[in-house]
From TrEMBL:
GO terms for molecular function: ATP binding; ATP hydrolysis activity; transmembrane transporter activity. Keywords: ATP-binding, Cell inner membrane, Cell membrane, Membrane, Nucleotide-binding, Transport. Residues 4-229 form the ABC transporter domain. InterPro entries: AAA+_ATPase, ABC_transporter-like_ATP-bd, ABC_transporter-like_CS, MacB-like_ATP-bd, P-loop_NTPase. One of its GO terms (cellular component) is membrane protein complex. It comes from Roseovarius litoreus. This is Putative ABC transport system ATP-binding protein. Belongs to the ABC transporter superfamily. Macrolide exporter (TC 3.A.1.122) family.
Length: 229
């Protein structure tokens, strides 16, 4: 089934001196349960699309649906509720609380979520059972990012949006982070969209969506069972 659908989506940044057309008319569907990777040159609109799908930013024109809910009709309070109930985010920087252990960082989310996993369960999902009582400074970059991923999935979101989760990591370590995302997608069925320059994602994703100049250039489909092209 379709989980996201956009129609004629545009985003214009008006910086005074010039207008930047970050999205210049994007029509795309994401399918429930798919792992999609967004590729394309820097500045081609990938983050902008992810931010709009995640309810972090408003479109300039066009429409976006999350299932039957039109996100482009929601106000700030509606978008906040949507993010809280349905979306997990992972960014390049981990934003862990330095004074808390891995378990406690995840607990910040599980303490307030409606139907959370146990923190131990979320950390096990990313292969960090042996690191639960470690502090961020005692962990490698890849481990810290996996704590951030555990934190993002602990509320059992339907959607996981990852903007350059491997951006601060060497490519070997990046692969481990992508494998954690793949494993989440496989075992929990979380619909996942990832922006990454790490080539290893190509073999893991159901679809590769290429961006150029604020538009979708082409879509490569590796698994027609989950995502018809
Ligand atoms: P990436 O290529 O990884 O998306 P960028 O450096 O293009 O990284 O952008 C990172 C963030 O900085 C964006 O999500 C946006 O919020 C902000 N940003 C990018 N370009 C501009 C700009 N020209 N003016 C103001 N903010 C910008
Ligand atoms: P990508 O993720 O593919 O690198 P982005 O979506 O970050 O691309 O950016 C698309 C375009 O929008 C770029 O030209 C970028 O500089 C511009 N942009 C992004 N965020 C902002 C912002 N907050 N203000 C102004 N321009 C921005």
């Amino acid at each position: 089934s379709v989980i996201f659908r956009t129609e004629g989506l545009t985003k214009v940044y008006d910086t005074g001196a010039l207008k930047v057309h970050a999205l210049a008319g994007v029509d795309i569907q994401l399918y429930a349960g798919e792992l999609a990777v967004l590729l394309g040159p820097s500045g081609s609109g990938k983050s902008t699309l992810l931010n709009i799908l995640g309810g972090l930013d408003h479109a300039t024109s066009g429409r976006v649906w999350f299932r039957d809910t039109e996100l482009t009709q929601l106000g700030d309070r509606g978008l906040t509720r949507y993010r809280r109930d349905h979306v997990g985010f992972v960014f390049q920087f981990y934003n862990l609380v330095a004074s808390l252990t891995a378990r406690e960082n995840v607990q910040l989310v599980t303490d307030v979520a409606r139907n959370p996993m146990r923190p131990e369960e979320a950390l096990e999902q990313v292969g960090l059972t042996h690191r639960m009582d470690h502090f961020p400074a005692e962990m490698s970059g890849g481990e810290q990012q996996r704590v951030a991923i555990a934190r993002a999935i602990a509320k059992r979101p339907e959607v996981l949006l990852c903007d350059e989760p491997t951006g601060a990591l060497d490519s070997q370590t990046g692969v481990q982070v992508l494998e954690a995302l793949k494993s989440i997608n496989d075992t929990l069925g979380t619909t996942t969209a990832v922006i990454t320059h790490n080539a290893a994602i190509r073999g893991m994703a159901h679809r590769v969506i290429w961006f150029r100049d604020g538009r979708i250039d082409r879509v490569e489909c590796n698994d027609t069972r989950i995502a018809p092209s």
